[in-house]
Write a structure and sequence with these properties.
Helix 1 packs across helix 2. It contains two helices and 21 strands. A six-stranded antiparallel β-sheet has the order 1-6-3-4-5-2, with no helix packed on it. The protein folds into three domains: 78 residues; 70 residues, SH3 type barrels (Roll), CATH 2.30.30.40; 138 residues, endopeptidase domain like (from Nostoc punctiforme) (endopeptidase fold (from Nostoc punctiforme), Alpha-Beta Complex), CATH 3.90.1720.10. The N terminus is likely disordered. By secondary structure, it is mostly beta strands.
């Protein structure tokens, strides 16, 4: 990555000063909690330790709010000071903010998954490199290199909280990355089209929602007439799963940023019995911001079949998880 500088007006320093806010133009890694050094470009060098709390990008001007700074002595000359990003010194500690966080062979979801990490696990981050941008707990295109349960790979910084990133630098650019895996010969769209075709069999009938009643699919196999029975029928499962048991039938949890048509979304797993759970088939994003999406689903009191859901607000309870069928 190399050193990157940000130039801003010098603020006179005393033996204990605070740099409240600085403004300049430059390219700074979008990271939180990093500590950097500030040096004056003159013959006399004074060093400050600054911790970044937050940033906002406005046009080409970068604003950062500084938590604190310690001055050694008053700067003898006016002018400007430069911000320099330190090289990696040692591993730093971080914590996963999302369960089933994927460890991948490279900095993107196209790279092979080699392991997963549970929520709130402490991680030793060795270095980081830029890659695919992910929207999660944070918005980040940085991927942290970690070793977990004997597997070394990359996890998105979008789901990793690092309280103090002092000393965390970029992974060496000469570190080779494996090529992303080639697509499998089978076309995933064909599987989605099959699921959607079976779902439309029931949608066209206009069934009434009733979790005590059953209705046959095109082959005569009967499924329960509720949300999880509808999904079980669409995926041609051999039984009517419930929102509690559905994850046991070949579905694997994924992040919302990875959603594609044919995945399922909702609130499922332990504790989602009866009205506590709901599941729907993801049928594509409804807007470019990816805050609304279309679904195929059975919801009472009357089967409407299709809906537009939001990832925010009133629908949030029903979109707690996302899963992909892997069989």
């Amino acid at each position: 990555m190399g050193d990157t500088t940000l130039v801003f007006p010098v603020i006179p320093a005393s033996s204990d000063c605070s740099l409240k806010q600085a403004e300049g133009i430059g390219r700074i890694p979008r990271e939180f909690g990093e500590r950097h050094r500030v040096r004056s470009p003159g013959a006399t060098t004074h060093i400050y330790t600054i911790r970044f709390e937050e940033e906002t990008l406005l046009s080409s001007t970068l604003h950062r709010r500084f938590l604190s700074g310690l001055g050694v002595a008053a700067l003898a000359s006016a002018g400007a000071v430069a911000l320099s990003i330190p090289a990696a010194q040692a591993d730093v500690s971080g914590f996963s903010t999302e369960g089933d966080l994927s460890i991948r062979t490279g900095p993107g979801t196209s790279y092979q998954e080699i392991g997963t990490i549970s929520k709130d696990v402490q991680l030793n981050v060795q270095c980081q490199r830029q890659g695919q941008a992910i929207q999660g707990t944070y918005a980040s295109n940085w991927w942290a290199k970690v070793t977990y349960q004997g597997k070394t790979g990359y996890v998105t910084r979008a789901f990793v909280r690092i309280p103090d990133a002092k000393g965390l630098g970029a992974c060496p650019e000469n570190t080779p990355l494996p090529s992303p895996p080639q697509p499998k010969p089978s076309n995933p769209v064909s599987s989605y089209e099959k699921v959607k075709a079976r779902a439309n069999d029931w949608i066209s009938v206009g069934l009434l929602y009733n979790w005590d009643l059953y209705h046959p699919d095109r082959n005569g196999v009967k499924y329960r007439r509720d949300c999880s029975g509808f999904v079980s029928m669409a995926f041609d499962l051999k039984t009517s799963a419930s929102t509690v048991t559905l994850p046991n039938y070949g579905f694997k949890k994924i992040n919302f940023s990875e959603l594609r048509p044919g995945d399922i979304v909702g609130n499922f797993g332990p504790g989602t019995e009866g009205a506590n759970g709901h599941v729907a088939i993801f049928d594509g994003w409804a807007n470019s911001a990816h805050t609304r999406f279309n679904t195929l689903e059975m919801h009472g009191p009357q089967m409407k079949g299709k809906a537009e859901r939001s990832t925010r607000g009133t629908d949030e309870f029903w979109v707690k998880s996302a899963m992909r069928y892997t069989k």
